[in-house]
Amino acid sequence: MTNRPTDADVIIVGAGVAGSSLAGLLALDGLDVVVLDRAQFPRPKPCGECINPGGVSALARMGLLNAVREHAPARLASWSLLTDSGARACGRYTVEGEYGLGMSRALLDEILVKEAERRGARVYEGVKAVNLVMSDRPRATQRVIVETTGLEGRRESWSAAMVVGADGLRSIVARRLGLVRRRPRIKKVSLTCRLRGTGPSRAGGVLFITQRGTVGLAPVHAHEPLWNGTVVVYSKRWGRGIAPDPLAFFRAALAQAPFEWDGAPEIIGGPWISGPFDWPTRGAVADGALLVGDASGYFDPLTGQGICSAFRSAEFAAPVISQAVRKGRTGVSQLLEYEHALRRMVRPTRVLQRVIEAAVSRPAAYRVVVARLGVSRPFTDRLIEVVGDSLPLRSLAAPGVLRTLLWRAR
Ligand SMILES: Cc1cc2nc3c(=O)[nH]c(=O)nc-3n(C[C@H](O)[C@H](O)[C@H](O)COP(=O)(O)OP(=O)(O)OC[C@H]3O[C@@H](n4cnc5c(N)ncnc54)[C@H](O)[C@@H]3O)c2cc1C
User: Fold this and answer.
1) Which of 355, 357, 401, 363 is nearest to 379 (CA)?
2) Run of H or E residues at 124
3) Which helix (H) or strand (E) holds 219?
4) E strands within 14-106?
5) How would DSSP label each residue in 165-187?
6) Which of 294, 309, 342, 390 to mutate to test the pocket of ligand 1 (most atoms within 8 A of CB)?
C-alpha cells in the first residue's frame, strides 16, 4: 500500500449524510478536507430511508438535489398513521412544491460521498478512527491527531487544525471529547428490511402503531416496487424475541400490519439492526473539535427527522469551521456560534419528539390521539409538516389549526 498524505485543514470522521455533505461544503470553500469512514461504500444503513421536505430543501440549498433525483427516488406526499385499534389518520404536505423523498440509504450515502470527492474532499474508506489526541504544541499551532486502523490492521495517525465527529450514534469522537451526557434511557431496537411487492399506495409512508412498537413502510424508488420496512420495538420487552431469529421477528411484525399487499411481499435485503437511539450530548463543540449529525445527539427515529438535522448541522457548521481554520483560532469560543445554532434547531424538535414518544408508548393515548387526528385534517396536515421540518413547532398552535383538533370534528 502506498503512503498517503495524512495532514489536512479538517478531518471529518464519518462519511454518512452529515459528514459527506459537510465535506462538500468545506471543500467548495477551498479547505483541504479529509473524510475517514470505517465502512466501504455503498454500505447499508439501518434507516426508514425517508428524506423529509426540510431535508429535500437542504439538499437543494447545498446543490445536491439534482444528483439525488437522477437516481429516481420515490416522491412522498403524505404520511398515514394506523393503530391496532383500527384508528386511522392521514397528513399531507400541503405547502406548494413541498415533498419528501424515499431512497435507499446505501445509494443516497454513496451519491453524497461521490459529490464530496467531486468537490475536492479526500475520502478514505475502510479507515476506522480509534482514538483522538491533542498535540502538545502551543495553543495557536495546536493540531488534532486522529489515530486509525485500516484494512489489514494498518495503523495511521492523521493530523489537522480541526476534527469533526460525524460518526453517528455512539460516536467515538464525542466519547473521546467527553461530550456524551449519559447512556440511553429509552431502549429500543430497530430492524430494517428491503421489500419488493405491490399493493399499498405509493403516494406516501405509513406508520402502524402497536403495543410492541411501530412498523413503518415507505416506497424507496420512483418506478420499482421497492419498499423500506422498519420495525422498532422496546428492547426490554421484545429484545429476547428478536435475538434467536431477527428475520422471523420482522416477518411476524410485518404480517400483523394492515398493509394492503397483492400477495406477500418478498424480503430482498436485511434485516439491518440498530439501537438504542437515545444518546444525548452535553455540547457539540470542544477545543479544535465539533460534532455534526447523530454524533451531536440523538433521541429517536420515530419522526424521521435525522437526515434533515444532519444536513442542517452541516450547513451551520461549514461557515464556522471555515472561519476558525482560516483565522487559526479553533478554540471553543470560536465555535460557540455553531453550538447555539444547533441548539436553537434541536430544542423544539426534541419537545415534539418527547410528546410523540409519550403518546406512542401508551396504547390508551395513541389510540385516542390517532382517532382524533383522523377527524382533524388541518391539524394533522400541519403536524406532518412540522415533523417534516418545513414549518416551525409554533405553527401547530395557530388559531384555526389547534381549534380543529380540540373542537371541530371533520
Ligand atoms: C431505524 C432508524 C430509522 C430511521 N429513519 C429515518 C428516516 O426515515 N428519515 C430520517 O431523516 N432519519 C431517519 N433515521 C435517522 C437517520 O438515519 C440518522 O439521523 C442519520 O443517518 C444521521 O446521519 P449521520 O451522518 O450523522 O450518521 P450516519 O448516517 O450513521 O453515518 C455515520 C458514519 O460514520 C461511520 N463511522 C462510525 N464510527 C466510525 C469510526 N470509528 N471511524 C470511522 N467511521 C466511523 C459509519 O460507518 C457511518 O458511515 C433513522 C434512524 C434509525 C436508526
Assistant:
1) 401
2) strand 122-125
3) strand 213-219
4) 33-37, 50-51, 74-76, 78-83, 88-92, 100-102
5) E---TT-HHHHHTT-B----SS-
6) 294
- And the C-alpha cell for 114? 461521490
What pTM does this model have?
A: 0.97
* 205 ligand 1 Cβ < 6 A: no
Q: 478531518: which residue's cell?
A: 11
Looking from the CA of 264 toward its CB, the CA atoms found within 13 Å total: 8
Looking up cell 500500500, which residue turns up?
1
Q: Which fold has domain 188-274?
A: Alpha-Beta Plaits (3.30.70)
- Residue 10 and residue 146 in contact, taking contact as beta carbons nearer than 8 Å: no
Q: How confident is the model at residue 107 (pLDDT cuts 50, 70, 90)?
A: very high
- Please list, residue by residue across 188-205, b when 16 or more beta carbons sit within 10 angstroms of its beta carbon and e when fewer do: bbbbbbbbebeebebebb
Q: What type of residue sits at position 153? A: G
CATH code of domain 7-74+102-183+278-352: 3.50.50.60
Other C-beta atoms closer than 10 Å to the C-beta of 401 total: 17
Per-residue pLDDT tens digits for 223-243: 999 999 999 999 888 888 898
pLDDT exceeds 60 at position 262: yes
Say how many Å lie between the CA of residue 18 and the centre of ligand 1: 8
Beta-carbon contacts of 172 under 8 Å, excluding residues fewer than 6 positions away, are: 13, 129, 130, 131, 132, 165
266-274 β-sheet, strand order: 88-92, 78-83, 204-209, 213-219, 226-234, 188-196, 266-274
Cα–Cα distance for residue pair 310/308, rounded to 1 Å: 5
Q: pLDDT-derived band of residue 137, with 50, 70 and 90 as boundaries?
A: low
pLDDT of residue 2: 59
Distance 294 CA to ligand 1 centre (A): 6
Supply the DSSP string of 232-266, one letter for each residue: EEEHHHHHHHHTT-HHHHHHHHHHHS----SSPPE
What stretch(es) of the chain map to CATH 3.50.50.60? 7-74+102-183+278-352
Residue located nearest, by CA, to atom 8 of ligand 1? 48
Closest ligand 1 atom number to CA of residue 49: 8
How high is the pLDDT of residue 46? Answer: 97
Q: Are 6 and 156 in contact (CB under 8 A)?
A: yes
